[in-house]
Design brief:
alpha+beta, 3-stranded antiparallel β-sheet, 8 helices
């Protein structure tokens, strides 16, 4: 507010750092190597190449933030519907987006929805079956159930940092406001709009 040109430069540098970190995580992939068996078709040799399954760090995208935001509107709706009954209710701490209670609840919901949405959209069993049908295998892993378990384990390990990233990006505007950045400019620091 009163920092002048130095504060504007610092805000722009912080904004660029957040954008670069977001691009790094959104584009981040864990490449799982897949080897395909060689086959002879006619007079030609087919297959035998090594390819990769790209498993995204942020496989859920922006959907967990949208789901969590929908649930975070419920306290506001209840207070709007029953204003006289909920005057001094605990729900009021969920109406201020800069409160610690709101931020922690929002972050927890985002982490939970990230795991939920990733479990629904990414099917390791289907991936393992498709590889097995196409004579593909992950080096060192047996085709079938072992491959499915390996892919599921890798997805679980990379989903946790992805979910933390989504939670931090979503609550970053509230921390920016706490640090003295105006509410209008703070929304550029995170949320669903940055990921889209």
């Amino acid at each position: 507010n009163d920092g002048g040109m130095i504060m504007i430069v610092l805000e722009i540098v912080a904004l660029l750092a957040v954008v670069m970190f977001t691009i790094l995580i959104v584009q981040g992939v864990r490449k799982v190597p897949v080897q395909y068996a060689k086959r002879i078709v006619g007079n030609r040799q087919v297959g035998g190449v090594r390819q990769y399954i790209p498993l995204k760090v942020n496989a859920a995208g922006v959907m967990p933030i949208i789901f969590a935001q929908a649930l975070m509107f419920i306290p506001n709706a209840l207070i709007g519907i029953f204003p006289e009954k909920l005057t001094d209710s605990w729900l009021h701490q969920y109406t201020d987006i800069t409160s610690l209670t709101y931020s922690l609840t929002f972050a927890f919901l985002i982490i939970a929805f990230t795991f939920f949405y990733t479990a629904i959209t990414v099917n390791p069993t289907q991936m393992a079956d498709d590889m097995k049908k196409n004579n593909g295998f992950i080096p060192g892993i047996k085709p079938g159930l072992a491959t499915s378990s390996f892919i599921d384990d890798v997805i679980s390990k990379i989903t946790f940092p992805g979910s933390l990233f989504l939670a931090v990006i979503a609550i970053l505007p509230s921390f920016a406001v706490k640090l003295g950045i105006t509410q209008e400019f703070a929304h550029f620091f995170g949320g669903a709009s940055l990921l889209i």
